[in-house]
């Protein structure tokens, strides 16, 4: 059931200048049914076309306060954070601090003499470690236990041959990149990468001064929740950002917002395709499809089966060079938030969808696909 305050705010739709947008009547029928079906308190859609932004806001950032969602509302973006981790690693390479072909253990000495001697940073960054699980086991609660778990872990498959979507894999990937930069991961992200991206409202650790902008998330029982700290939380799902900053990030991916040359090269390198599974090609954390891929192909690649199970993959040798005619996407969730980012370089167009409740990935993909249908030539 949707409560009256939420219904009142469902009509609160803004553009960049808080006025009417010609797309509003096309976006509303896509987003409002999602909110009603899944009981989502608040959402925002951000669209960039050749660097020009529009925002469509719906509902509330907090049911308790009634504060409306705005382009400056902070959302947890879950695994979209993995693309930032990939960018950090790629930037460490373009600044000559590491090589992505090196083994993970070269940068994490505690893992020397383990399976990570045979797992490259590329394999950690493409979920092809050989079987690292989705989550760190519940019994692993501190750094000592985490190191012991990783030292004792054995791959079920030859690295590079199977994809198993993995927070621990992302964790060692990010931790190695930060170690190469001689910084703790949170500092590497907040003090080195994010400032160079020009993302001034994006955080791993939300400052006290910004907490009033931080949306309240809601779990499947509609209870208020926010992300909990845990092993590899920062590396795998720790970013909090607003739609304005996230669209800037998309513009950088589309090369319509310039950054320095080494960071530009790093961004480009995160779009290289290393392995393929069905219609999806795995880049460094980003996932790409043919530009004109149909909706069933996109839904299959973003399905629970692909996320939760191990699948054999086709190695791309040589890797697929970045190109314009692709649909590049990433979903992200925490217990109380759900996000989606997609962009098509050939069109210089991207869409971000953020919500303060988690809901099925496939519903997000379908919504973005429908939005693109209104934008694409």
TrEMBL record:
Pfam families: Beta-lactamase. Its EC number is 3.5.2.6. Keywords: Antibiotic resistance, Hydrolase. It is an enzyme of class 3 (hydrolase). The keyword Hydrolase applies. The keyword Hydrolase applies. GO terms for cellular component: outer membrane-bounded periplasmic space. SUPFAM superfamilies: beta-lactamase/transpeptidase-like (SSF56601). Belongs to the class-C beta-lactamase family. This is Beta-lactamase. The lineage of its organism: Bacteria, Pseudomonadati, Bacteroidota, Cytophagia, Cytophagales.
């Amino acid at each position: 059931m949707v409560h009256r305050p939420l219904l009142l705010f469902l009509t609160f739709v803004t553009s960049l200048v808080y006025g009417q947008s010609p797309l509003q009547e096309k976006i509303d029928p896509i987003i409002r049914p999602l909110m009603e079906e899944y009981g989502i308190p608040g959402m925002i859609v951000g669209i960039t076309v050749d660097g020009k932004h529009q925002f469509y806001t719906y509902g509330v950032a907090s049911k308790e306060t009634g504060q409306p969602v705005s382009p400056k509302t902070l959302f947890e973006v879950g695994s979209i954070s993995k693309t930032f981790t990939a960018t950090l690693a790629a930037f460490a390479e373009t600044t000559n601090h590491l090589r992505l072909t090196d083994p993970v253990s070269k940068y994490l000495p505690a893992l020397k003499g383990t399976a990570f001697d045979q797992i490259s940073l590329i394999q950690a960054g493409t979920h092809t470690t050989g079987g690292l699980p989705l989550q760190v086991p519940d019994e692993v609660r501190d750094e000592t236990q985490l190191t012991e778990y990783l030292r004792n872990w054995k791959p079920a498959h030859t690295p590079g041959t199977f994809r198993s979507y993995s927070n621990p894999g992302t964790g060692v990937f990010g931790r190695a990149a930060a170690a190469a930069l001689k910084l703790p991961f949170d500092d590497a992200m907040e003090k080195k990468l994010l400032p160079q991206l020009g993302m001034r409202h994006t955080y791993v650790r939300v400052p006290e001064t910004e907490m009033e902008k931080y949306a309240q998330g809601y779990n499947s029982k509609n209870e208020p929740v926010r992300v909990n700290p845990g092993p590899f939380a920062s590396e795998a799902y720790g970013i909090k950002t607003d739609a304005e900053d996230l669209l800037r990030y998309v513009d950088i991916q589309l090369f319509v917002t310039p950054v320095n040359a080494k960071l530009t090269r790093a961004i480009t390198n995160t779009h290289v395709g290393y392995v393929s599974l069905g219609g999806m090609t795995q880049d460094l954390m980003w996932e790409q499809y043919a530009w004109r891929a149909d909706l069933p192909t996109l839904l299959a690649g973003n399905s629970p089966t692909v996320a939760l199970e191990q699948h054999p993959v086709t190695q791309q040798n040589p890797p697929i060079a970045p190109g314009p005619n692709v649909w590049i996407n990433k979903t992200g969730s925490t217990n109380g938030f759900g996000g989606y980012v997609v962009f098509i370089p050939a069109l210089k167009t991207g869409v971000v969808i953020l919500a303060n409740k988690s809901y099925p990935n496939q519903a997000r993909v379908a919504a973005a696909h429908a939005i693109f249908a209104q934008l694409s030539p």
